Amino acid sequence: MPICQKWLQFLLLSLLCFLAGMCLAAAGIWVTVDGDSFMKVLPPFTDDFQRYVSVGIFSITTGAVMTLLGLLGCCGAQKESKCLLIMFFSIILIICIAETAAAIVALVYSSYTEIILRAWATPGLKEQYGKDKILTDLWNSTMTTLQCCGFSNYTDFSESYYYKQNGGLYPPTCCADPELFPCVDHNADFSGVVGCFKQIVQLIQRNVNIIRGIAAGVTAIEVAAMGVSMYLYCYLDKKAT
């Protein structure tokens, strides 16, 4: 392939990275400036939860890195700078290694996910649900949106703070018709409302192909950018000699 086409490919890849970073940063700024309207399309986030999960800052930071990376690639291609090209290649390589390491860790610990989450979620439901407003609002929003009850099922609330403070009642989402019948043990058991962990797993499984497609697309762009940048670096190195 002619070298000019290689330069064009690299410029396009860098420009794509630059534009993606700008869009992500713009979304982060939107969340930061007008988080209420943005979060309306992303239930079950609550106002209290947003204070602790800074989606806007994360998006701005990630977008800024991608924007600078794209700008670095564009400058390297335009100025035919070996230094900028190798820097671009190194940063992309580090990102790929980090992504691979994260994927391996996620794969290794995937079988322990339920155990780890249960160890975190169950004590919170037992001791803090109904007492801690942030945790209570988050769980209420999650259970209402996903139509689930607790982490495993309604038994997560048995003998909990909420259960004792409400005279042996479970949260309304744990029963099919809480407005008609009190949500006590036998009604919660008869309703058979599933736990939120199962609902989350099903939601992830329904969208796993989209997640795989996005991951594959991002990886392909990164590998292509590394390949072209290294090719151009070798070309400039040979040209210099």
From TrEMBL:
The keyword S-adenosyl-L-methionine does not apply. It holds the Pfam family Tetraspanin. It is found in: Lysosome membrane; Membrane. Residues 1-25 form the signal peptide. The chain crosses the membrane at residues 49-72, 84-109, 210-236. Belongs to the tetraspanin (TM4SF) family. Interacts with SLC19A2. Interacts with NTRK1/TRKA. One of its GO terms (cellular component) is lysosomal membrane. Structural component of specialized membrane microdomains known as tetraspanin-enriched microdomains (TERMs), which act as platforms for receptor clustering and signaling. Participates thereby in diverse biological functions such as cell signal transduction, adhesion, migration and protein trafficking. Regulates neuronal differentiation in response to NGF by facilitating NGF-mediated activation of NTRK1/TRKA receptor tyrosine kinase and subsequent downstream signaling pathways. Plays a role in the inhibition of TNFalpha-induced apoptosis. This is Tetraspanin. Keywords: Glycoprotein, Lysosome, Membrane, Signal, Transmembrane, Transmembrane helix. Coiled coil: none annotated. It is a multi-pass membrane protein. It comes from Cyprinus carpio. Its main location: membrane. The keyword Transmembrane applies.
